[in-house]
C-alpha cells in the first residue's frame, strides 16, 4: 500500500494485516462482496490519509489574514471547523476539482480526513485493518471526535475498539452508536449533562417544506422521555380507533390524523384516554449519584436525567433538594477558592466574570487600540475643536499676546509657521495623546494580569472540584464496579434515600410496578427481574413473624423459589412474569444487527417449536415482526439458542453470526 507522510510525499509500505469477519469468509460471490467491502474500508483510510497530506501541503499562511482586504469574511471564518483553520481556503476548490465534488462536499471531506488523522488515529488504523467499515465512522466522528480532552478522547476511542475486538457477533452502525453513547455518557458525564442542558434550552417545534409541493414536515425537539411518551401516547390513540374495514388509511396516516384531532380539535375527537408505559432503567449506582447512564425505552440518557425521572415517577423530591451538602473527606484546610465548585453561583469563575467580562474587555481594548494607534488622525484639530481650545490656554504665547490660531489646513506650511506659537500648542496635544496611550497600555496590562489570575484561580478551583467530587459519594459510586460496592461506598443518608425510592414504588400505583433487575456484575446479563415485595418473600420463610435474620432464624428455605428466571409455562403463550422477563432480557430484536423494538404484543418466538420445545426462558427469544417472519419463512437459515440467551444464526451459505442479549 501507499503511505503518505506529513510533507505530502508517498512511500511504499507492506499491507497491514486484515481482520477476519466475525461471521467468517464466505465462498463465491458473497465472499467477493466481503472482500470488496474490506477493500473499500482500506481505501477509505488511504484516501483520508492522502487528503490530510494534501491539506498539510496547503497551509493557511498563504491566504490573506482576517481583516485584510479580500480575505475570507469573518462569518465564514468563524463557521469553519477548527481542524480547517491551518488549511488554505483554496484547498477546498482544488479538492473539489480533483474529486468531482461540490465545494461543500469537498470541505466536508477535508474536515473528515483531518479529524480522522488528527483526533481519531486508532479508528483510522482499525478502518484500514478491516475491524471497522465505512458505515461505522459517522457515529465516531459525531460523538467521540468532538471531545476536547485529548487523553479522555483517546481513552474512549481505545475502549470502543477493545469492545469491538472482543465481540463475537455482527456489529452494525446502530449498535456501535448505542455503545458510543453509553461510553461517552459514562466517561464524559458532566460534559454530557452540560450539553443536555444547552440542548434542552433549544427545545421547540419547527416546520420545513418537503420535496413534494404541498407537504411539510413538523419537527419536535424535546427530551428523550418526553419524545418517547409522546410517540407511545399517539400510537395508543391510533390503536384505540375503531377498526373499519372500509378505512384504507395506513398507520402513518392515522397517526397524523389523530395528532391533528388532538391538537386542533381537542374534545371533539371522541378518542378514549390512553395510558403510556415507559421503561426506565437506572442502576443502583445511578440512583446513588454516580455517572452511569440510564435508559428510557432503550435510549441512552445521562445519569442525572434517569435519576430525576425515577424520582419523579415515584413522587419524590428531586435529587439534592433541601439536602445538606455532603462532607468531603480529606484536607479541610483548603482555601475558599479551592473548595468552591467552579460551576456554582458565587464560585471563582462567576466572581471573575463579574469582575471582568471577556466580551466587554475585548470591546474596550479594541476601541482603545483603534483610538490610540490605528487609522489616520487629522494633522490638527479644526478651529473650535475642544482639544484645540483647551490646549492653547495651557500653552499660551509670550511673544504675541494677540496671537490667534491660523486657519490653515497645514500650519507647518503657512508663512511664518516656524516662529509662530502654533508649534508648542500642537506638541502639547501630541504629548497628552502619548500620555493617554501610556495610561491605556498600563490599564490594559493590569486588566490582562487580572484576567490571567482569574483563569488560574478557575483552573485551581476546577481541579479542587474534581478532587472533591472523586472523594465524595458520587465519585465513589461511579468508581464502584458493582452495586454492592456502590452501596458500601455511600453513607446512611444515601442508603435511606434509595430505600425511600424503593418503598415509594414497590406498592404499585403506576401503570406497571417498577422492577428491580438483578444482573451479573461482570457480564451485565440479566439474572432475575423482581420487586421489593418479591425480594422480601424470597428472603423469608413466609412466616409472618420471621424477618430472616441468620443469627436468630434457622428455618428451612429450600422450598422457597429464590431468584432467577421464571418457571416455564405449561401452555403455548408465556405467563405474564415469563413474558416480562424475556422482554427485559432481550429488549430489542435478537436478529444479529437489528435494533428494532420487540412489539408490545406477540413476537416472542419458540426456537424449538411448541410443544416439542417448552415455553421457557431458555427457548424464547424476541424478534421484530420482519425477522420473526423471516425465521419461519426464509429457507436455509438455522437458529440456535443457548440457555444463557446467546443466539447463533447460520445463513444458507454457511456464515455464522452470534448475538448475546444486550448487557445492563
Please describe what this structure looks like:
By secondary structure, this protein is mainly α. It is built from 24 helices and 14 strands. It has 5 domains: 131 residues, no CATH class; 49 residues, no CATH class; 83 residues, no CATH class; 120 residues, no CATH class; 84 residues, no CATH class. The strands form 6 sheets. Strands 5-6-7 form a 3-stranded antiparallel beta sheet. Helix 1 runs antiparallel to helix 5 and helix 16 packs antiparallel against helix 18. It starts with a strand and ends in a 5-residue tail after the last strand. Pfam families: DUF222 (PF02720). InterPro entries: DUF222, HNH_nuc. This is DUF222 domain-containing protein.
User: How many β-strand stretches?
Assistant: 14
Largest sheet: 3 strands, antiparallel
Mean pLDDT comes to 75
Q: Can you tell me the number of structural domains?
A: 5
Region (Disordered): 320-350, 400-419
Domain DUF222: 66-312
InterPro entries: DUF222, HNH_nuc
Protein name: DUF222 domain-containing protein
List the helices and strands and how they pair.
Blueprint: E1 2-4, E2 10-12, H1 29-56, H2 74-79, H3 90-99, H4 103-119, H5 121-129, H6 137-143, H7 150-166, H8 173-187, H9 189-200, E3 204-209, E4 216-221, H10 224-239, H11 251-264, E5 280-281, H12 284-287, E6 294-296, E7 299-301, H13 303-313, H14 336-339, H15 348-355, H16 358-373, H17 386-395, H18 422-471, H19 473-479, H20 483-489, H21 492-506, E8 516-519, E9 526-530, H22 532-538, H23 576-586, E10 604-606, E11 620-622, H24 625-633, E12 638-641, E13 647-650, E14 656-659
Antiparallel strand pairs: 1-2, 3-4, 5-6, 6-7, 8-9, 10-11, 12-13, 13-14
Pfam family, one: DUF222
Protein name: DUF222 domain-containing protein
InterPro entries: DUF222, HNH_nuc
Amino acid at each position: 500500500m501507499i503511505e503518505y507522510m506529513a510533507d505530502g510525499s508517498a512511500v511504499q509500505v507492506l499491507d497491514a494485516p486484515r481482520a477476519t469477519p466475525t461471521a467468517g469468509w464466505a465462498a463465491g460471490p458473497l465472499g467477493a462482496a466481503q472482500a470488496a467491502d474490506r477493500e473499500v474500508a482500506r481505501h477509505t483510510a488511504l484516501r483520508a490519509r492522502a487528503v490530510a497530506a494534501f491539506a498539510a501541503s496547503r497551509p493557511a499562511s498563504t491566504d490573506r489574514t482576517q481583516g485584510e482586504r479580500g480575505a475570507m469574511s469573518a462569518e465564514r471564518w468563524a463557521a469553519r471547523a477548527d481542524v480547517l483553520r491551518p488549511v488554505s481556503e483554496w484547498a477546498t476548490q482544488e479538492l473539489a476539482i480533483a474529486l468531482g465534488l461540490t465545494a461543500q462536499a469537498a470541505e466536508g471531506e477535508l474536515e473528515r480526513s483531518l479529524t480522522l488523522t488528527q483526533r481519531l488515529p486508532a479508528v483510522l488504523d482499525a478502518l484500514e485493518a478491516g475491524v471497522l467499515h465505512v458505515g461505522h465512522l459517522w457515529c465516531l466522528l459525531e460523538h467521540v471526535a468532538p471531545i476536547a480532552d485529548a487523553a479522555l478522547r483517546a481513552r474512549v476511542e481505545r475502549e470502543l475498539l477493545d469492545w469491538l475486538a472482543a465481540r463475537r457477533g455482527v456489529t452494525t452502525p446502530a449498535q456501535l452508536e448505542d455503545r458510543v453513547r453509553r461510553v461517552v455518557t459514562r466517561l464524559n458525564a458532566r460534559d454530557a449533562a452540560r450539553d443536555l442542558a444547552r440542548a434542552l434550552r433549544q427545545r421547540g417545534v419547527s416546520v420545513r417544506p418537503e420535496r413534494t409541493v404541498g407537504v411539510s414536515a413538523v419537527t419536535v425537539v424535546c427530551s428523550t422521555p418526553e419524545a418517547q411518551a409522546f410517540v407511545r401516547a399517539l400510537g395508543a390513540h391510533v390503536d384505540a380507533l375503531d377498526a373499519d374495514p372500509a378505512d384504507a388509511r395506513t398507520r402513518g396516516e392515522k397517526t397524523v390524523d389523530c395528532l391533528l384531532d388532538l391538537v386542533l380539535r381537542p374534545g371533539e375527537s371522541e378518542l378514549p384516554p390512553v395510558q403510556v408505559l415507559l421503561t426506565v432503567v437506572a442502576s443502583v449506582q445511578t440512583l446513588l449519584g454516580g455517572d452511569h447512564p440510564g435508559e428510557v425505552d432503550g435510549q441512552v440518557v445521562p445519569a442525572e436525567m434517569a435519576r430525576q425521572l425515577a424520582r419523579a415517577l415515584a413522587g419524590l423530591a428531586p435529587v439534592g433538594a433541601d439536602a445538606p451538602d455532603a462532607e468531603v473527606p480529606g484536607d479541610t484546610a483548603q482555601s475558599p477558592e479551592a473548595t468552591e465548585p467552579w460551576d456554582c453561583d458565587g464560585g471563582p469563575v462567576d466572581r471573575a466574570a463579574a469582575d471582568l467580562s471577556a466580551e466587554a474587555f475585548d470591546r474596550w481594548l479594541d476601541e482603545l487600540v483603534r483610538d490610540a494607534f490605528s487609522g489616520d488622525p487629522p494633522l490638527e484639530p479644526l478651529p473650535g475643536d475642544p482639544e484645540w481650545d483647551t490646549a492653547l490656554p495651557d500653552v499660551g504665547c509670550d511673544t504675541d499676546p494677540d496671537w490667534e490660531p491660523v486657519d490653515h489646513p497645514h500650519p507647518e506650511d503657512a508663512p511664518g509657521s516656524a516662529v509662530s506659537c502654533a508649534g508648542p500648542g500642537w506638541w502639547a496635544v501630541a504629548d497628552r495623546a502619548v500620555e493617554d496611550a501610556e495610561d491605556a497600555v498600563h490599564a490594559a496590562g493590569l486588566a490582562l494580569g487580572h484576567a490571567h489570575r482569574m483563569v488560574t484561580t478557575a483552573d485551581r478551583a476546577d481541579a479542587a472540584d474534581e478532587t472533591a467530587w472523586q472523594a465524595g459519594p458520587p465519585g465513589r459510586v461511579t468508581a464502584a464496579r458493582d452495586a454492592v460496592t456502590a452501596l458500601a461506598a455511600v453513607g446512611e443518608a444515601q442508603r435511606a434515600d434509595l430505600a425511600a425510592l424503593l418503598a415509594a414504588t414497590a406498592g404499585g400505583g403506576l401503570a406497571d410496578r417498577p422492577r428491580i433487575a438483578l444482573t451479573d456484575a461482570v457480564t451485565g446479563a440479566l439474572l432475575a427481574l423482581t420487586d421489593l415485595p418479591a425480594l422480601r418473600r424470597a428472603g423469608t420463610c413466609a412466616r409472618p413473624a420471621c424477618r430472616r435474620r441468620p443469627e436468630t432464624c434457622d428455618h428451612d428455605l429450600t422450598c422457597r423459589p429464590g431468584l432467577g428466571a421464571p418457571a416455564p409455562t405449561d401452555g403455548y403463550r408465556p405467563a405474564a412474569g415469563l413474558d416480562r422477563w424475556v422482554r427485559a432480557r432481550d429488549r430489542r430484536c435478537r436478529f444479529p444487527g437489528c435494533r428494532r423494538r420487540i412489539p408490545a404484543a406477540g413476537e416472542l418466538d419458540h426456537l424449538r417449536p411448541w410443544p416439542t420445545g417448552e415455553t421457557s426462558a431458555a427457548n424464547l427469544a424476541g424478534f421484530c415482526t420482519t425477522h420473526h417472519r423471516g425465521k419461519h419463512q426464509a429457507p436455509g437459515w438455522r437458529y440456535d439458542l443457548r440457555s444463557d440467551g446467546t443466539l447463533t444464526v447460520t445463513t444458507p451459505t454457511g456464515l455464522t453470526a452470534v448475538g448475546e442479549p444486550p448487557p445492563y
